[in-house]
C-alpha cells in the first residue's frame, strides 16, 4: 500500500537539548525542504548526494527570515524507515526552533503526522509486520536491559518468524485437506488423518510454548506490581530501602510510621518491579493511619506479587494469621525478618500454613538474605520452561489473546480429527487457527485494530 500525502513531526522529545529533529516522510518531502533550505554554497538539498549531512539555514521563502542554522539530509525510498522519501532537519534543541521549522514545513504542504504514523507507514508499506511495529514502542519504553533485549529481538522478527513458521504448517495442513477433498474417491483417509493429527499436535505444542512465556513477558514489558505487607514495625520500609539501596522510606521503632503507600520503581535481575511499601495492617483508632491501612488492602488486591513480612522475634498475632489467610491464593513470598534476634515465632506453623509459598529468613539490619529474596523473585517470574536467558517471549496482551484463541481453535481441530469428522469440518478449525495467528503479524488483522495500536505510539515515531 502506498500513501500519497507527506507527513511531518518533531522526532525528538520536547524541552531543551543539544539538537532537535524535524522528520518529514512522503513523495513531496524533498520538494518541500528544497523551498526552505539554503546551503552554504547556495545549492538545494536535492542537489547534494543522498545521505550526506549538509550544513545550511532554514529560511522562510515568503519573508526571507532565517529560522535557524541546521544540518539536513535526505534518503530515498524504499531504502528508508517508511520506505518513502525521508528528510530530517537537525536544528538547535529547544521548543522554539523545532516548532518554527515544523510550522514552516506544514505551511509548505506537509501534514502533521498522527501518533505512530511513521511506523504505521513502515508497516503498511511492508517494511515491518505488526508485531515488529509494536516492538518499536516496547524498545522506547523498556524499563530494564532484559526488557530492551526482548523488544529488540521482536523488532528483528524473532516472534514473527516463529508465528510464520507455525502458520506455514497450518497452510500445509490446509493444502493436504484440499487435495484429500478433491480426490475423495481414493482410499487415503487414514493416512490423511494421521498426517493432520501429527501436524496439529506439533502446532499445538508450539502455541503452548509461546503462551508459557506470556506471564514473564508481560512483567518485562509492564513491570511486576509488588506490594510489601505485614503488621507494623516488621521491617517493611527497611526492606524497601535495602532493595533500593537508598533511604527512601522513613524507618523508626514507632509502629505506624508509614501511613501512606510509598511506590518506587526498581530493577531486580532485569525484572522491572513497581514496588509499594504499605502502612502496617492492624486495627487502629488513628484516622490517618486507618486510611493508610485501607489503601494497603486496596493495593494488596491488585498486586501481582505479595511480599509478606513477619517478625521472627515475636510470636504470631491475629493480624499475621489474617494476612496469611488473605494471601493463600496470591503469588507471595514470606520473609521472616530479624533472624539476628532470638526466634519466638513458630516457624513450623508458618511453613504449614504457607505450604506452597517460599519462606525465607532474613536480617535487614545485618543485610542477610537479600540475595535469596532476589533469586526467589526471579524464580517466580521465570518459571517452568521460561528462563532468564530466553529472549523469545510474548510480551503483548494482544498477542497472548490471539495465541489463546489459536490454541482453542487447533484443539477443536485435533478433536475433530480424532473423531474422524468430515474433512471440511476439520478445515474450518485449521483455517481459524491460521487466521487467528495472522493477527499477531498483521496479515489478517482488521483495520480498526491497526488504527488503535498506532494511536498508542508517540508523535514522530
Structure, described:
Its cofactor is K(+). InterPro entries: G_TrmE (IPR031168), GTP-bd (IPR006073), GTP-bd_TrmE_N (IPR018948), GTPase_MnmE (IPR004520), MnmE_dom2 (IPR027368), MnmE_helical (IPR025867), P-loop_NTPase (IPR027417), Small_GTP-bd (IPR005225). (6S)-5-formyl-5,6,7,8-tetrahydrofolate binds at residues 23, 88, 127, 461. With 461 residues, the protein is an alpha/beta fold. The protein folds into three domains: 7-113, Probable tRNA modification gtpase trme, domain 1 (Gyrase A, domain 2); 133-213 and 394-444, Four Helix Bundle (Hemerythrin (Met), subunit A) (Up-down Bundle), CATH 1.20.120.430; 223-381, P-loop containing nucleotide triphosphate hydrolases (Rossmann fold, 3-Layer(aba) Sandwich), CATH 3.40.50. The protein has helices at residues 29-36, 95-107, 117-124, 130-141, 145-155, 158-182, 189-212, 214-222, 236-244, 287-302, 318-326, 347-353, 370-381, 397-418, 423-441, 447-455, and strands at residues 7-10, 19-25, 37-39, 54-59, 66-75, 86-92, 111-112, 224-229, 262-268, 271-277, 305-311, 332-337, 358-361. The chain has a seven-stranded mixed beta sheet with strand order 3-4-5-6-2-1-7. Strands 9-10-8-11-12-13 form a six-stranded mixed beta sheet, with helices on both faces. The longest helix has 25 residues, at 158-182. It is flat.
Amino acid at each position: 500500500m502506498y500513501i500519497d500525502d507527506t507527513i511531518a513531526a518533531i522526532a525528538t522529545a520536547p524541552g531543551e537539548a543539544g539538537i532537535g529533529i524535524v522528520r518529514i516522510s512522503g513523495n513531496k518531502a524533498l520538494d518541500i525542504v528544497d523551498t526552505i533550505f539554503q546551503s552554504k554554497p547556495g545549492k538545494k538539498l536535492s542537489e547534494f548526494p543522498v545521505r550526506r549531512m549538509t550544513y545550511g539555514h532554514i529560511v522562510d521563502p515568503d519573508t526571507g527570515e532565517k529560522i535557524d542554522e541546521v544540518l539536513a539530509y535526505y534518503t530515498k525510498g524504499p531504502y528508508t524507515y517508511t520506505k518513502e522519501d525521508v528528510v530530517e532537519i537537525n536544528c538547535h534543541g529547544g521548543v522554539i526552533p523545532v516548532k518554527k521549522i515544523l510550522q514552516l514545513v506544514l505551511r509548505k504542504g506537509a501534514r502533521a503526522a498522527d501518533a505512530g504514523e511513521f511506523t504505521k507507514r513502515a508497516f503498511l508499506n511492508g517494511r515491518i509486520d505488526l508485531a515488529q511495529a509494536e516492538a518499536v514502542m516496547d524498545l522506547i519504553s523498556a524499563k530494564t536491559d532484559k526488557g530492551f533485549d526482548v523488544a529488540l529481538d521482536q523488532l528483528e522478527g524473532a516472534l514473527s518468524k516463529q508465528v510464520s513458521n507455525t502458520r506455514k504448517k497450518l497452510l500445509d495442513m490446509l493444502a493436504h485437506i484440499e487435495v484429500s477433498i478433491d480426490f475423495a474417491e481414493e482410499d487415503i483417509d487414514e493416512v490423511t488423518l494421521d498426517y493432520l493429527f501429527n501436524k496439529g499436535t506439533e502446532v499445538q505444542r508450539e502455541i503452548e510454548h509461546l503462551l508459557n512465556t506470556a506471564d514473564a513477558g508481560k512483567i518485562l514489558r509492564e513491570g511486576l506490581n509488588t506490594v510489601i505487607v505485614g503488621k507494623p514495625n516488621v521491617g517493611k520500609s527497611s526492606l524497601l530501602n535495602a532493595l533500593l539501596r537508598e533511604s527512601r522510606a522513613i524507618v523508626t521503632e514507632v509502629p505506624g510510621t508509614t501511613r501512606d503507600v510509598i511506590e518506587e520503581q526498581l530493577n531486580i535481575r532485569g525484572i522491572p518491579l513497581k514496588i509499594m511499601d504499605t502502612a502496617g495492617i492492624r486495627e487502629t483508632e488513628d484516622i490517618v493511619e486507618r486510611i493508610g491501612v485501607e489503601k494497603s488492602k486496596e493495593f494488596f488486591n491488585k498486586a501481582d506479587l505479595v511480599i509478606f513480612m513477619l517478625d521472627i522475634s515475636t510470636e504470631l498475632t491475629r493480624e499475621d494469621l489474617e494476612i496469611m489467610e488473605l494471601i493463600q491464593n496470591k503469588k507471595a513470598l514470606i520473609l521472616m525478618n530479624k533472624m539476628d534476634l532470638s526466634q519466638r515465632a513458630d516457624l513450623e506453623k508458618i511453613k504449614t500454613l504457607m505450604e506452597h509459598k517460599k519462606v525465607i529468613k532474613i536480617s535487614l539490619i545485618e543485610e542477610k538474605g537479600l540475595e535469596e529474596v532476589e533469586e526467589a523473585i526471579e524464580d517466580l517470574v521465570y518459571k517452568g520452561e521460561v528462563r532468564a536467558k530466553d529472549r523469545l517471549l510474548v510480551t503483548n496482551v494482544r498477542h497472548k489473546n490471539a495465541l489463546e484463541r489459536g490454541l482453542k481453535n487447533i484443539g477443536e481441530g485435533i478433536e475433530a480429527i480424532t473423531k474422524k469428522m468430515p474433512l471440511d469440518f476439520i478445515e474450518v478449525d485449521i483455517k481459524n487457527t491460521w487466521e487467528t495467528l495472522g493477527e499477531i503479524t498483521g496479515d489478517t488483522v482488521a483495520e480498526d485494530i491497526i488504527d488503535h495500536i498506532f494511536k498508542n505510539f508517540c508523535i514522530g515515531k
